[in-house]
Amino acid sequence: MKIADYIMGSAATARRLQIESGMPKLRDGYSRTQELIDHIAGEGPIRTAELCSVLDLTSKQVWGMLKHPLLTGKVVHERGVWSSSVGEIDAWQARLAAADAAAAEAKAAALLSARGWTCLPPEGAQ
Questions:
Q1: Cβ distance 11 to 18 under 8 Å?
Q2: What is the Cα–Cα distance from 40 to 54, expressed in whole angstroms?
């Protein structure tokens, strides 16, 4: 018997309830806010939209629940992402920039190679 057959509402809500029915109960005193903080700490830098989709919340709920932790310094919101510290955000954005540069370099090398040029890797790269 599927729980989704008996729930009125969205399919996402039905899936969340079905998943939650198989999960162990949260310990006493464990709130949705603490769940958000733990998710941010576990996942590293994460955008509001990703938090919303993972935890089935609206952005208004995320901001409302994280207002106090933000003011007290438990979480940081900078440059569009939530994190436990500013250093994590800097490292995350540096990894994204390096990946973008590597992808652009590979695309340029492929284009030049297709046009008859010989492309060598940068010095020090293997």
A1: no
A2: 11
Strand order in the sheet with 46-47: 46-47, 81-83, 76-78
What one-letter code names the amino acid at 108?
A
In angstroms, the Cα distances linking 60 to 51, 63, 99, 114, 123 are 11, 5, 32, 49, 49
Tens-digit pLDDT profile for residues 18-61: 666 665 555 556 678 888 888 888 877 888 998 888 888 888 99
Sequence letter at residue 71: L
Tokens linked to 55: 């935890």
Tell me, what's the pLDDT at 86?
Answer: 66
Q: List the beta strands (DSSP E) in the chain.
A: 46-47, 76-78, 81-83
The alpha carbons of the chain give a radius of gyration, in whole angstroms, of 22
